[in-house]
## 1
Amino acid sequence: MTVFELANVACRYPGSADLALRPVDLTIDAGQFWALCGPNGSGKSTLLRCLTAQLTPVSGTVSFAGKPLAEWTAQARAQQLAVVRQTNQAKPALTVREVVALGRTPFRHFWQATTSADREVVAAALRQCDLQALADRPFSALSGGQQQRVWLALALAQTPSVIILDEPTTFLDIHYQLDLLKRLKALTQRRVTVIAVLHDLNQVLQFADTVALLAAGTLLATGTPEDVLTAKRVGQLFQVEASRVQDRAGQSALIFH
Ligand SMILES: Nc1ncnc2c1ncn2[C@@H]1O[C@H](COP(=O)(O)OP(=O)(O)OP(=O)(O)O)[C@@H](O)[C@H]1O
């Protein structure tokens, strides 16, 4: 099943003469782990903003689950699509549990009380992100990495079919980076589609099913990380020397010089 279909999608920011994203055609199928990669300023976040309806393309159409994204109401969209942004902010007075419970908002009217089913979903999301011990702490008293896990838990509480993340490993130590990537990979086994901007190309090689490589607003290549992230292409694109090695289990990795 196709989740996103982009046809000739181009984006420009208000007041800017240049396209931040040149015309892109892209099909994203359900249950895939997509990584968006490329140098700083290459258009990764811009592409994500098109997928989350934060930015309206100047040309082309973005279809989500078979319907133009523009025809989805914000509530219907939020029932299917969870977004973890770099710049999320919560009201300082909220506890971790209350922040995560915001993930249930798309499923009820504002006057309706939370149900026991809602509370169970929130508890499961807290558990999945290893946050039970912090659940009743004020959100503002958490470290950057802990806050990042709260945003993931909020997204999981939306029980989404698609989860979109902009640099989700920022602020996380290596333990929680791998933990997060493994969790995202596990979600794809349950047919959840994961689309994430990732800078660590070795993590992309290890976890992503498909990578979209961008450069200066142009989609350079899409395909498996093995095929797309060759030492030559990566070296040229990021202007570094790179070589590719394999460990004993056959896992590819890039080494930078
Ligand atoms: N709000 C904005 N207004 C105007 N131009 C913007 C805006 N946001 C991004 N741009 C421009 O659009 C282009 C693509 O930026 P984008 O944020 O998508 O890159 P990115 O690949 O996500 O970069 P990074 O890895 O640094 O986060 C850049 O040239 C950037 O300067």
Note: The chain has a mean pLDDT of 93.
## 2
Amino acid sequence: MNALELVNLTMQFGGLMVTNDVSLSLEKGARHALIGPNGAGKTTLINLITGRLTPRKGNVLLEGVDIVSFPQHRRIRMGLVRNFQVTNLFSSFTALENIALAVSERNGSGLSLARCYGFADPVIAEAEDIARRMGLANVAPVPVRHLAYGQQRLVELAVAMALRPRVLLLDEPAAGLPAADHEVILGALDELPEDVAVLLVEHDMPLVFRFARQITVLAEGTVIAQGTPDQIRQDASVRAAYLGNRS
Ligand SMILES: Nc1ncnc2c1ncn2[C@@H]1O[C@H](COP(=O)(O)OP(=O)(O)OP(=O)(O)O)[C@@H](O)[C@H]1O
């Protein structure tokens, strides 16, 4: 059974077809990248998977269960996790507290208990471990709003890790980060349990080609190619539509 399967997803904004009959499968443990030019519909596809948008047609199967009608929070509880955006972090909380909140949310103890009574020791220990693995140990006690943008982006990823995803969706996790931090991202992904599937949307081609075992290329809402990194590099239509001046 696939970790994630998209079946004939279709989405329009007004008259603009942004997701055109897209089908895509991620096996358990997949390292799959979704690439394509600006406006190709990559973020829209992520939003259809998370439930932020509802497709006009098609299905989203998570480990065999059709979740297309499920609300976002239910999908997260089932292990479908997207990297948080900086704007979703609690900016007056420290990096460690943001991670600890995600750990306690996952445990079912949630925000209100944590705020009233502080975090339990095992929650803090786990959050510290995640912060260390993400290279955030030094800034763990710093409120997120005082962190550099790049560090805030790494906290986003740490929060997603803390939710223990079964399928992790990463929308441009490296945008705005120096290349040195790509190592931190790749290192953190390496530490995920082997069967966790990852779908990465990214414009940074060196990062994509280091990360991915499978690549899907989207252009104008349509899948134009799918294959291994070598197959994609050599695909003439992909070079014409996108990679020509990038790889
Ligand atoms: N809420 C919306 N309403 C109307 N049009 C939208 C909306 N969101 C996205 N679009 C349009 O849908 C198309 C696909 O956008 P999307 O953001 O999914 O592309 P993308 O591949 O993620 O682009 P980028 O690489 O630049 O982030 C674009 O033409 C965009 O302008």
Note: Strands lie at 4-13, 16-26, 31-35, 57-62, 65-66, 80-82, 167-171, 197-201, 214-219, 222-227.
